[in-house]
Amino acid sequence: MARRSLFGKESRMSQSAADRLAAVPETAPAVDPDDLLVRVARGDESAFAALYDALGATVFGMARRVIRDPARAEEVAQEVFLQVWQTAARFDPARGTAKSWVLTLAHRRAVDAVRHDQAATNRENSYDWSPGVDHDQVLETVTVRLEHEQVRRCLEGLTELQRESVNLAYYQGYTYAEVAQVLGANPATVKTRMRDGLVRLRDCMGVEVS
Amino acid sequence: MTHDLHTLAAPYALDALDPHERARFEGHLDQCAECRQELRGFHLTALRLAEAEADTPPPALRARLLSEVSATAQERPVVTTLAQRGRIRRAGPRLLVAASVLVAAGAIGGYVSEHNRADDLQADSARISAVMVAGDATMLDGKVRTGGTMRVVASPSHDAAVVMGSDLKQLDDGHVYQVWAMHDGVPRSLGVLGSGAGMLYAQDIAGSDAFAVTVEPDGGSPAPTTDPVAAMPA
Questions:
Q1: Which residue of A has its CA nearest to B72?
Q2: Residue A131 has what pLDDT?
Q3: Max mean pLDDT range (B21-35, B72-86, B196-210)
Q4: ipTM, two decimals
Q5: CB pairs under 8 A between A and B
Q6: How far apart are CA A81 and CA A134, in angstroms?
Q7: B59-111 pLDDT tens trace
Q8: Cβ B44–A207 below 8 Å, yes or no?
Q9: Which terminus of chain A is less hemmed in, N or C, by CB atoms within 10 Å?
Q10: Which residues lie below 8 Å from residue B89, measured CB to CB, with a gap of 6+?
Q11: CATH number belonging to domain A157-210
C-alpha cells in the first residue's frame, strides 16, 4: 500500500518531467484512447494517427521484448495497428479499455510470431534466462523507467515459480504446458502460480478494475 | 468443469493457452460474469507489463501505417438477428435456400459480429435484403476445400454481393476466412468471415471475374498469404 501511494506521487512528477522533455507522445495523450478507438471504428484516420501516437511505443516495445528482433517486432506492430484499423468495430467499451484491447491483440500477435518463428528450433536450448534487453539504454523517458522499475519490484515480490511462470508466458510466449516442462513443474501447479502471480502483481501495481 | 475452466483466466490473459483451450475458455467467458471481471483485472495487469517495455518505434512505421490505412477497407461484419431472418425469409420462396444458410450462419456466426452497433446492423440488414431480393441476383456456390460451402449472391444493379459461409471447418481463433474479389487476377479484400460460418456484405463488385477464399490471420491480411481454399468464377 505504501509503495502504491509513493509511486502515485512519483508518477505525477515524472509526468510533468516527461512533458517538459517533450518525450514520447504516449506520456501526454491528448484524447482518451477509448474515444479514439470508437472514432477509428467510424473510419476516422486522424483518430487512428492519435491512437498510434498514444499506443505505438507500448505495442512496439512489448513486441520487441517478446520477439527480440527489432525488424520483426516492427512488422508485428504494423500488423497489429492494421488489425486495429480493420476490426475497430469489434471493440466493446463495456468489456474493457481501448488500451487493454489493443495490447491484448498485440501481445497475441507477438506470441504467435515468436511461436511460429521458433517452431523449428529447440526452444529449451535457446531459452534466454536473462531479464531481457538492457533497459538503461532503451528506456528513454522517466515515465517508462519508473513504470519498468515498479514492474520489476512487483515481480521481485513474487515467489520464484510465480515470477518465472508469468515471465516465461508473457515475455517469452510460452504456453503454460511449455512453462511446466521448462520449470519441471506440474502443469496444474503452473496454472495456479500464474493466477497467484497475476493477483499479486495486480495488487502490487495498484491496478483498479472499474 | 466450471472450476476447471475458471483456472484458465490467468494463462488466458498471458496468452499461455493452446488454441483449443483458448477457444474453450472464450466459450465459457460468455456465461461467466465472474471470469470476465477477473480477466479485466488480469488484462490491465498484463498491460502494465507491456507498458514497462515501451520503446519509441522507428518513425517510418507511423508514416507507413497512415498511408496503408487510407487504402485499407474496414471490416463490416454482419449478423442476422431473428427479426432480420424473418424479413429475409418473407422476401420470397426462391430465397429459401439462401435463408437456410443465413440461419446456419446466424447460429454460429454470432461471434463474428457481436460487437457491431445496432445501427450498423440495421443498415447492413437492409442492404443484404436488397441484394437477396434483387431481380438480377445470381447465386454462385463453391465447395471449400477444407470443408463446407461458400455462396455468393451478387446483384449487378446494386453493384453488391452477399457472401455466406456454411459448415466451414472451425478455425482456431487466430485465423479467419477472408473473401477476395478477383479483377484480372488481382485480389481485392471483401472482408473476413470469422470461424465456422458467417456472412458479409460487399460493394463495388462490378468487373469481378472470380471470388476466392483464403485462410488468414485474425483480422485479415492486405493480400492473400495462403492458397485459396475456394474459388468461384463469376
A1: A86
A2: 45
A3: B21-35
A4: 0.78
A5: 207
A6: 26
A7: 999 999 999 998 888 876 444 343 444 344 333 334 434 444 443 344 333 33
A8: yes
A9: C
A10: B95, B96, B99
A11: 1.10.10.10
